[in-house]
Each structure stands twice: as structure tokens, then as C-alpha cells.
Q: What sequence folds into this?
């Protein structure tokens, strides 16, 4: 997939190397930021930067495996599903994201969804 | 003139009376104690564990000979009293001596009942009553093979279990069809029998002993039905009878026992009696709890208080056979109007029966799960109406009430403060909890020493341990089970540190691989711990893993509920200047800080700073001469000071100056948890040094050093470590203490629980008793400080790479960013 262009509707938001391993950065947008996670094995995830519990910024949590622990009250969110790990209950909105040649692309539904909302 | 008190009987009842008496009035009497055994006072009910090899004679000694000497008690051990002359008020001993008395206490206990059959005098026929009997049984077990115990009651079964543990082939001969028929119903008795049979004990039920046969040594026990059971040893445990010979001979009124009134006085106004030799309201007791209740009352009257009365005891029984839980109390025989609630689970080995009459518990038999025994016993003694809780009664106290909160509490946590935990010594839950808290008790032995709970029969040991656990929370570590750090590993904090200390491993991934971590890169619990442990171990070359730090330590600010940060510049010792205040004011305005607040640690906190602004605000503060206040970290926080001798008319030393020196030495150091210090200039202690992790209280002659305080969830006052004379020493001891804590505490363990876990004595040993070690600790601390005191704010504010982490990866709200995105 390395030489494939991302195609339409994909927005470049930065390079993999700009995010520390097991770290996160945010993409700022109107109406709420998106957290881009660099998880175990350089897998990239994009989730709304808001814990379903009390709105904590998930991008500031400790990333472990494919999960993040919210910095405010230690809820653990599964990055794959966006769901809180039991016994807590809640779900975080996920966005399509892909990594091509070290470049991170976010699907612009992430922007449009916001405009529609 | 001092009155003379003579005690006949050096057993548990007599000596408990004397202990109670000494507590009330130590000097009222000249006390002489006669005991016909050649020992001090020992705990007779623990003879069973001695026989079973679980305790030694030394373990069960109650009062040493020094104790008698210290309390000015004349102990005539091994001397038997042969006569009491009431007319002349003297006791006459077998050595011909005469001892006069003003008050006499008879505590001669009981004797084993000997069956009136042939052969009881043969060699190898024993009873189970004293140390001598136990020694003989242990000797017999070495040479003989087969033992017969006559009597399947409490004492007989404990003897049988002990002999079996010593390798003997044991048969119990019991007259009735149920073991312990006075304490158990048929169902529980059968379960008990089955468990004991699994331990290779044999039983002959409804078997009447006719004779013991042998030439001069026992060879067999002959039953009524003609069967003969071969035996090298016979233990007769068919019951006890009050030992009243001496009293009878003296003409004291006796029935089954020496008859006493509610003040434990006999028919002679100068003679009291307590223990198994007495008969009170028609009852002679053979258990220890009533004896101790009697002792309290008797002591009260001997001390001339005359305010206590003994009204008889309701008793409960537990069998002291390790591994078998059995509890019995009250009347469970059934009868008119008595309802039974029964739970029976033969597979699970649990049986519970409650007998209820008029909505009150009359009796209880518990087998296999005796946890709620004390609770039922309390309901029974207090005559509580149980109709409201009847549905849940059998499931135990934990099932009562609000299930949302009851889940994690153990049964004992739910008991009321006046619930009796130790039946032997009459110790209630409240007394134990108070002692644990007030006297800072941490071990079972401590509790035994202070409250006497669990020090007699030991069957409430489990309950006392639970009380320790629930009272102390995480501080209680009597159970050697070490908890793993988290679900990512089975290893405890200590085990992991041990590996770190002995292996040359310097990264978290290598460490996790070496220790076979179960998760690819840990979790938010273990990673910060490992990062700290490695940093502490390799202060010079460990590369700190910021992704394994909590956001506050990564961003060097304190995250708030709205995702903004608070920023606290360091103010050495809480001292500031107009220039510094001006700089802070400028920064607060420039970055639109939403609130400025003074902290509890004498610093200024700037609230509502956006993450993106952090590097800028730090740069401005750095320029003004500030370094990070570490108000966010598991690190040295602040050194709080009072004004001290420089201004205060009470100040004894320069507490402010010393605080500044301490803070300059220690700032920047990472710790297992946050670490707070204070220096007070005099014992008025305005800096509140005695609730800090490390506190200095200045006095005229030097400096008191206090450790392990906490003003948080559980307030704990510091322990005094020592007193030193110079500031140099204060600095040395501070550094040594901090380093000991850094090297040995678990991550996220404050000094208060740490000191309680390892003990003040341990800390003193490492720091006070060993000056070499103290200096080595100090040196290691100073070495690690060289790298730790690089100001993180300055570092972050000047490195573009680090600054980038505080900015969004991309800002789509900005016009040019959006255009770029759409291109």
C-alpha cells in the first residue's frame, strides 16, 4: 500500500514520527478535538478526545496495548472499539484514519460529521 | 498496714484475678501464690496445640517468674497446700509452712474424672490436664504405636488429634452416639466424625469401657460387649470435676463445687473462690470465658470497689483442631416451640443450625463456616428479636443491609463495636479496634499483647486478623501473600525491585521481557511504577520514559477537570519577593490565568492554563528566576516553614533558612509518591511539621526530626526519628531518610503506610544505628540529585522538539490549515 495515494476525502494531519510511540496528539477542529493515538505496533487510531465518563482529554492518558487510560479518573478505553473496558460503560466516537508512508490521513467525515451536527 | 492475700492455685483463673486486681490497685495486698505444678502460670487451654506440635511450652507460658517478682508476689511453686485453718486464718503447706491471710482466694480448678473401673492405675493410663500429662503423652508416642482415647468430647478429640499428629494409631471410644454431644447435634457431629476419620482417627461409638487390662503396663481396653482394643497408651478424657477437697476439708460449704455468691464470695466472708472449682447459681463451668468473667468480678471485690456482680455466663465452644471449624453456643436440643433453621451442604462441608424460640436465637451450631459465630452469639446473649432479619439470618451478617456497599466488607467489619470477638477474655471489637488505632498495632502478637484477644484458645485468631486488616487497610501485611503489582504480572513490588536491584536492565521493555510480563507494554498502573524503579536504580543513565508517566509529570503541570493545567512556581521555603510576585502577576495577566490561589504548601497556584501555553508560561517564569514547583508529581513537593528566630519572638532556630536549604537540596527528586516537608521554629509547630512526610521541629538545643506523617485521608501524626544538634546533621538525616524511602517503598506508597509497614524500628536501624549506612544513603541521594535538578520547565521551554508535544498535531480551525487540508 506504500505507493498508493490516499484518495479523495482523506486529509493529511501529520507524520507518524510526530507522535511518540505509545503516545497521542490532537487534531484541533471546531466543536471538539480528535485524538490521534500511536498504539502498540504503530497502529494508529482516531477518537473523539473526550472520555465518556467526565469528558477527560483521552490524548493525555497513558497508552498501553491498544488501550488508553483516561488521565482524570482512570477509565480505560479500548481504541479499537471506542468502548470503555468493563465494569465501566460508555463509548467514544471513532473516526477512520490511515497511515501511508509514515503520513497519517484522517477521513474528512471527521470534519463533515461535525458540520452536520 | 498492708493486708495479706493468699492464693491457692496458680492457674488461669487465679492469676487472671490477680492481674485484674493489680490493674485496679497494685499496692493493696501482700500477695502469696501457691501452685502445685513446678511451673509459672501457663495457658492450659493451649495444651492441645502443644500436643499437636503447633506450639511449644514456652509459647503458652502466661506469666514469667520475673512477672511475679516485679509485682512483689511471692510465688511458692511446686508447693501443695494441705490445709486451710479458718480459725487461725492460715494455710498450711506440705512443707509444714504456715502462711497467714486476711483474704484467701481459692482457685484450685478441676480434676479429670476417672472412670471407676479396673486397671486405671496401670502404667500408660493418662489424663489430659497439665504439662506433665502432655509430656508423658509425647514420650509415649515415641515408643508406642496404638492409643485409645476414652471420651469423644472436646478434650478427648483434641487429645486424639494431637496423638495422631504424633504418629500414633488412635481409636476414640465414646459412650454416646454423637461426638461432642453436649455441643453438637447429630448432623454436625457426623460431619465432624467424617472429617476426623479422614485424618485416620478411628471411632467406636456407643461403646462403654468395662476395664483397662494389662500386667503392670496397659495392653488393651476392654469394652462391655467383650471387644478388646489393643493399646500402648490410654488417655481418659471423660470429663472434669471441681477440685474441692481442700475447701471441703476446711469446712467450706460445697455442693458439686465450692458454692459462691454473685461476688465470688464463699460462705466464709474472708474467702473467695474462682474458676472451675466453684459452683455459681448451681452451675460449675469448665470453659475459660466464664472464669475470666468471674476473675473480673472477684478482683473488683478484693479491691473493695464492690460494684461488680457475676450473673452467670452464656458460653460458646470452639474446637481447637487445626483445619476444622466448629462453633457451638446455647441450647440447640429443640423442644416445645423451638424452630430450627438449617443449612446443610455435606459436599461443601458446611452445616449451620440455629434454634429459635419466640423470635430469639436460643442456640447455634456451625460447622465448616464459623465466621458468623460471634454474631449469632451476640444476638443470642442480647436476646435480639430476629423476626426482621429471619430470612437472611443463616446467610450471615454480610448479607444484611445494603448489598451495594456490603460486598467488599468482611463479616467482622459489620460487627458492632460491642460484639465480642474473643470469648475467652471477653474482648469486644471496639476495644480491639481502639487498641489497633491508638497504640499503632500492626501484628497479631501486638493485639494479643495489648488486648489479650486471641491470646487464650486462639480460635478467634482469624477474626482478629480480619480486624487488623479492615482497620489498617493496606497497611496490614501479616498475611505473607504478596499482591502482584497489577494484572499484567504475578510479581509483587518487592519482587520486581529485587530483580531491578540485581540485574543490569535499564529499559522498561527489557524489564518486562525479562519478567515475562503478560501484556505487551503493561498498563497505567505498572508502567509508572517500573519507570520510577528504574530511574531510582540507575539515576545517572536511565533514560526516563515520559510515555510511562502520568500526564501531570509529562506536562509538568497539574491537569484539572476541564483539561487545563495549573502551574506552581517554586518558592523556596515559602519565601518570596516583590519582584517575584510582580513576575507572577505579569504571567497571570499575559496568559489570562483564570484563578490565582495560595496553596496549602505556601506557594502560588495559577489555574486554567491551556496545555499549548505551558512552554510559554514556563519560559517567562524561568526568566524571572523560577523553577518548577513539582506540585504535580510523585516528587518532593514543598518545604513549608514558619518565620522562625528571625522574626518570631518564640522562634528557637532559623526555621525559614533551614527550610530553604532543605528544599534546595531535595527539589526535583522523584519519589514513590508525593513527599512533603516542613520546618517549625519552635514546638508550637506553626508549620505543622508533625503531619508531614518529614518534619523538623526546632527546639533550643537542636532539631527534632519527625517522619511518616500525613494530613490526608487518614491523618497520621509523625513518629519521632531522633534529635540532632546541627543543621548539617538535619540535612544528612533528611537525605538518608528520603533515599531509604525512595529505594524501599512501593510505588504510590506514602511514607506513613510505609513506615507502618516496615516499622519505625527498622527505619531507626537503617538510619540511626548505622552511621555508615546513613552516609551511604545520603551520598546516593545526592548523586541522584545531580541529574534530577535540571529544571524540567527550562528544558521543555528551550527544546523545540519537546515544545511540539504541547501543540496540536494539526489545527483545522485555522484558515491556512484548512486550506492545506483541502488542497
A:
Amino acid at each position: 500500500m506504500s505507493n498508493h495515494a490516499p484518495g479523495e476525502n482523506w486529509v493529511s494531519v501529520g507524520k507518524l514520527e510526530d507522535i511518540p510511540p505509545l503516545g497521542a496528539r490532537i487534531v484541533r477542529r471546531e466543536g471538539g478535538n480528535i485524538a490521534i493515538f500511536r498504539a502498540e505496533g504503530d497502529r494508529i487510531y482516531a477518537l473523539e478526545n473526550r472520555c465518556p465518563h467526565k469528558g477527560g482529554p483521552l490524548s493525555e492518558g497513558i497508552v498501553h496495548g491498544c488501550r488508553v487510560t483516561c488521565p482524570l479518573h482512570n477509565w480505560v478505553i479500548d481504541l479499537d472499539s471506542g468502548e470503555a473496558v468493563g465494569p465501566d460503560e460508555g463509548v467514544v466516537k471513532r473516526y477512520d484514519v490511515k497511515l501511508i508512508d509514515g503520513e497519517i490521513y484522517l477521513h474528512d467525515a471527521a470534519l463533515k460529521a461535525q458540520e452536520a451536527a | 498496714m498492708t493486708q495479706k492475700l493468699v492464693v491457692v492455685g496458680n492457674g488461669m483463673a487465679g492469676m487472671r484475678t490477680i492481674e485484674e486486681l493489680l490493674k485496679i490497685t497494685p499496692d493493696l495486698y501482700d500477695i502469696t501464690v501457691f501452685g502445685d505444678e513446678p511451673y509459672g502460670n501457663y495457658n492450659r487451654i493451649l495444651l492441645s496445640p502443644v500436643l499437636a506440635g503447633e506450639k511449644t511450652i514456652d509459647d503458652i507460658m502466661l506469666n514469667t517468674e520475673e512477672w511475679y517478682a516485679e509485682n512483689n508476689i511471692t510465688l511458692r511453686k511446686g508447693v501443695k497446700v494441705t490445709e486451710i485453718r479458718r480459725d487461725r486464718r492460715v494455710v498450711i503447706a506440705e512443707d509444714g509452712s504456715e502462711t497467714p491471710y486476711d483474704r484467701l482466694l481459692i482457685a484450685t480448678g478441676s480434676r479429670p474424672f476417672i472412670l471407676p473401673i479396673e486397671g486405671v492405675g496401670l502404667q500408660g493410663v493418662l489424663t489430659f490436664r497439665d504439662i506433665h500429662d502432655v509430656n508423658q503423652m509425647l514420650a509415649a508416642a515415641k515408643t508406642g504405636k496404638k492409643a485409645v482415647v476414652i471420651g469423644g468430647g472436646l478434650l478427648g478429640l483434641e487429645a486424639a488429634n494431637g496423638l495422631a499428629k504424633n504418629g500414633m494409631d488412635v481409636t476414640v471410644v465414646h459412650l454416646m452416639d454423637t461426638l461432642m454431644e453436649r455441643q453438637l447435634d447429630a448432623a454436625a457431629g457426623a460431619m465432624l466424625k467424617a472429617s476426623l476419620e479422614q485424618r485416620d482417627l478411628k471411632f467406636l461409638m456407643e461403646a462403654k469401657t468395662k476395664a483397662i487390662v494389662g500386667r503392670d503396663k496397659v495392653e488393651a481396653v476392654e469394652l462391655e460387649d467383650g471387644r478388646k482394643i489393643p493399646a500402648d497408651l490410654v488417655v481418659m478424657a471423660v470429663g472434669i470435676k471441681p477440685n474441692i477437697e481442700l475447701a471441703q476439708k476446711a469446712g467450706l460449704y460445697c455442693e458439686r463445687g465450692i458454692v459462691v455468691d454473685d461476688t465470688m464470695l464463699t460462705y466464709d466472708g474472708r474467702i473467695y473462690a474462682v474458676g472451675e472449682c466453684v459452683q455459681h447459681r448451681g452451675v460449675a463451668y469448665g470453659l475459660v470465658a466464664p472464669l475470666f468473667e468471674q476473675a473480673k468480678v472477684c478482683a473488683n471485690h478484693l479491691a473493695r470497689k464492690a460494684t461488680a456482680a457475676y450473673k452467670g455466663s452464656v458460653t460458646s465452644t470452639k474446637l481447637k483442631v487445626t483445619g476444622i471449624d466448629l462453633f457451638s453456643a446455647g441450647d440447640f436440643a429443640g423442644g416445645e416451640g423451638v424452630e430450627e433453621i438449617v443449612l446443610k451442604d455435606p459436599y461443601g462441608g458446611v452445616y449451620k443450625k440455629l434454634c429459635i424460640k419466640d423470635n430469639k436465637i436460643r442456640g447455634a451450631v456451625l460447622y465448616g463456616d464459623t465466621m458468623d459465630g460471634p454474631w449469632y452469639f451476640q444476638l443470642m446473649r442480647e436476646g435480639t428479636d430476629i423476626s426482621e432479619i429471619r430470612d437472611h439470618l443463616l446467610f450471615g451478617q454480610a448479607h444484611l443491609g445494603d448489598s451495594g456497599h456490603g460486598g467488599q466488607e468482611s463479616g467482622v467489619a459489620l460487627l458492632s463495636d460491642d460484639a465480642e470477638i474473643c470469648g475467652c477474655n471477653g474482648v469486644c471489637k471496639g476495644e480491639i479496634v481502639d487498641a489497633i488505632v491508638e497504640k499503632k498495632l500492626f501484628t497479631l502478637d501486638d493485639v494479643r499483647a495489648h488486648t489479650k484477644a486471641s491470646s487464650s484458645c486462639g480460635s478467634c485468631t482469624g477474626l482478629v486478623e480480619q480486624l487488623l486488616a479492615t482497620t489498617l487497610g493496606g497497611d496490614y501485611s501479616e498475611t505473607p501473600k504478596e499482591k502482584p503489582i497489577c494484572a499484567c504480572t504475578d510479581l509483587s513490588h518487592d519482587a520486581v525491585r529485587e530483580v531491578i536491584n540485581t540485574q543490569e536492565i535499564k529499559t522498561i521493555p527489557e524489564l518486562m521481557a525479562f519478567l515475562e510480563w503478560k501484556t505487551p507494554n503493561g498498563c497505567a498502573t505498572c508502567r509508572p511504577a517500573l519507570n520510577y524503579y528504574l530511574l531510582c536504580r540507575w539515576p545517572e543513565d536511565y533514560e526516563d520514559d515520559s510515555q510511562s508517566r502520568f500526564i501531570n509529570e509529562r506536562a509538568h503541570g497539574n491537569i484539572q477537570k476541564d483539561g487545563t493545567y495549573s502551574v506552581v512556581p517554586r518558592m523556596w521555603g515559602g519565601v518570596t519577593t516583590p519582584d517575584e510576585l510582580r513576575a507572577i502577576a505579569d504571567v497571570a495577566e499575559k496568559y489570562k490565568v483564570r484563578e490565582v490561589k495560595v496553596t496549602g504548601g505556601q506557594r502560588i497556584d495559577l489555574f486554567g492554563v491551556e496545555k499549548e501555553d505551558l512552554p510559554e508560561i514556563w519560559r517567562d517564569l524561568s526568566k524571572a528566576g523560577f523553577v518548577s514547583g513539582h506540585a504535580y508529581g510523585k516528587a518532593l513537593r514543598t518545604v513549608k516553614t514558619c518565620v522562625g528566630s528571625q522574626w518570631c519572638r518564640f522562634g528557637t532556630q532559623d526555621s525559614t533558612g533551614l527550610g530553604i536549604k532543605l528544599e534546595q537540596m531535595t527539589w526535583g527528586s522523584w519519589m514513590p509518591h508525593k513527599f512533603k516537608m516542613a520546618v517549625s521554629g519552635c514546638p508550637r509547630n506553626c508549620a505543622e511539621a508533625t503531619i508531614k512526610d518529614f518534619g523538623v521541629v526546632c527546639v533550643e538545643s537542636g532539631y527534632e526530626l519527625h517522619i511518616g506523617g500525613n494530613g490526608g485521608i487518614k491523618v497520621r501524626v509523625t513518629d519521632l526519628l531522633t534529635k540532632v544538634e546541627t543543621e548539617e546533621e538535619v540535612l544528612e538525616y533528611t537525605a538518608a531518610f528520603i533515599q531509604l524511602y525512595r529505594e524501599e517503598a512501593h510505588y504510590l506508597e506514602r511514607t506513613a503506610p510505609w513506615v507502618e509497614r516496615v516499622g519505625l524500628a527498622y527505619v531507626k536501624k537503617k538510619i540511626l544505628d548505622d552511621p555508615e549506612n546513613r552516609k551511604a544513603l545520603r551520598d546516593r541521594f545526592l548523586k541522584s540529585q545531580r541529574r534530577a535538578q535540571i529544571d524540567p520547565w527550562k528544558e521543555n521551554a528551550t527544546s523545540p522538539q519537546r515544545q511540539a508535544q504541547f501543540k496540536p498535531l494539526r489545527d483545522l480551525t485555522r484558515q491556512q490549515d484548512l486550506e492545506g487540508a483541502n488542497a
Q: What stands out?
A: Residues 10-116 of chain A form a domain with the Rieske Iron-sulfur Protein fold (CATH 2.102.10.10).
